[in-house]
Amino acid sequence: MVQQKRAKFGSKLGMILATAGGAVGLGNVWRFPYMAGQNGGAAFILIYIGCILLLGLPCMVSEFIIGRHAASNTARAYTKLSNGTAWKWVGYLGVLTGFLITGYYAVVSGWCLQYGLASVVGHLHGSPAYFQSYFSDFSTNPWKPVLWTAVILLITHYVIIHGVRNGIERASKIMMPALFLLLLAIVVASCLLPGAGKGVEFLLKPDFSKVTGDVFLGALGQSFYSMSIAMGCICTYASYYSRHTKLLNSAVQIGVIDTVVAILAGLMIFPAAFSVGVSPDSGPSLIFITLPNVFEQAFASMPVVGYVISLSFYLLLSMAALTSLISLHEVSTAFFQEELHISRPRAAMIVTGGCFLIGAVCSLSLGDWSFLQVAGTDLFDVFDFVTGQIFLPVGGLLTCLFIGWYVPKRLVRDEFTNWGTSRSIFFGAYYFLVRFICPLAILAIFLHQLGVF
To answer: Which spans are transmembrane here (predicted)?
Structure first.
């Protein structure tokens, strides 16, 4: 039986970068730009920022409170605060959600590595039809995506087994600044292209005529997805926080980083797309089909610059995917380590092996194993639907109800104010939001995603 002292982050900077790294991922660089593209650009961004303030931050603070107070893995944290009542299953749902997402998210993360290699060897050149067929041939290949899934999971495994400070925190201090620098460099190059101003205007000039109820619900859902709410990541990382950490301040800092990365991703994509006349609302295929074509056309007169930009972009994507994958992996690793009383390497091995099996089956269901379907839908999309449109909103809704209506208000206030040492001016607003506004908003997202309205 292995008993170890609870790990803690070594510095405030490391804590913020690690938690922000868990939130910043393909949801920012991939999902946010095409969501903005489909919903009117700047109008969507303004609504999204409002959703971060009203939904994202209160939900994040709630998970901070649960994780730090219990100082244990997500399942045990809810069990402690619920005194073993049925509320404990919310924590188990968070662990399960994180585990399942790790499996299929690793597949998409592996695609990023493949495209990075393809950029290095010069394979990302050709007509729009070529890029379409390249992605189709690769994603349905019986072994290449599975191989890259294994590679990205092994990299994640290596970071995880080195612990919180020497693994997660150290990797975050390297990858997050590098991600920002790459992002800024590509933004500058994109905005200097001829005709790029139209893309900047599209992103920064609101068009409220496109605002509908669907846009509001889309922004709510994106804020939830982007900040990794209800995946177990936030709660698990908070269990490594110091008792002196100001939870609201940390949530605001992470929310700002997360939003800035998302907006910069739009400034990276839209100016380049508009400069060559490509529609920005290209859906999830944006980064694997549309953007290689955009880079090919936009930098046709400067092939060396185009080569560097393409390589930098997929390196950036790989790092964004990896930071999120590390946080997702840690949710299950901490669970198995503490519940089975085993070493971190053994726990990590269970998670890596299990998630590889999920990823491999999901990947193969897109190609040779296309017979693996549920109601006519391949397993990859099934995992995405079940976790993203059912587990996440249900977990977030139950967490808000748990903190707002079950956990004693005094305990919530003590954690929020660091036992009275921090100003509590915002506690009333936070508590009102988490009791009433957040549950109603999350319920609206859930019902909308299921097609109820």
So the answer is: 12-30, 42-66, 86-107, 146-164, 176-196, 216-240, 252-274, 304-326, 347-366, 386-407, 428-447
CATH topology of domain 12-450: Hydantoin permease (1.10.4160)
DSSP 3-state of 121: helix
Question: Cα-flanking dihedrals φ and ψ of residue 122, to 5°?
Answer: 80, 30
Q: Mean pLDDT for the chain?
A: 90
In three-state secondary structure terms, 374 is: strand
Distance CA 17, CA 170 (A): 10
Burial 283-310 (b: 16+ CB within 10 A, else e): eeebbbbbbbbbbbbbbeeeeeebbbbb
- Across 160-274, the runs of DSSP E, i.e. the strands, are none
**Would the CA dihedral through 79, 81, 84, 86 be positive or negative?**
negative
Q: Which two tokens mark 404?
A: 């707002």
Spatial neighbors of 379 by CB under 8 A, at least 6 apart, are 361, 362, 365, 372, 373
Question: Measured between alpha carbons, how far is 21 from 30 in angstroms, rounded to an integer?
Answer: 15
For residues 259 and 37, which has the higher predicted lDDT (pLDDT)?
259
Q: How many degrees, rounded to 5, is the angle at CA 180 between CA 285 and CA 223?
A: 55
Element (H, E) at 81: helix 74-82
Integer Cα distance of 368 and 354 in angstroms: 21
Ramachandran angles phi, psi of 378, nearest 5°: -65, 160
**Gap between the Cα atoms of 316 and 252, Å rounded:** 24
Q: pLDDT tens digit string along 57-115? A: 999 999 999 999 999 999 999 999 999 999 999 999 999 999 999 999 999 999 999 99
Q: Which residue in 265, 295, 290 sits closest to 280, CA to CA?
A: 290
CB count within 10 Å of CB 144 equals 17
- With 0-12 / 13-18 / 19 or more C-beta atoms within 10 angstroms meaning exposed / middle / buried, residue 155 is middle
Identify any residues that bridge with 373 across adjacent strands, giving them in sequence order. Answer: 378
Dig out the tokens for 350 from the structure. Answer: 């269970």
DSSP 247-312: HHHHHHHHHHHHHHHHHHHHHHHHHHHHHTT--S--GGGGGTTHHHHHHHHHTTT-HHHHHHHHHH
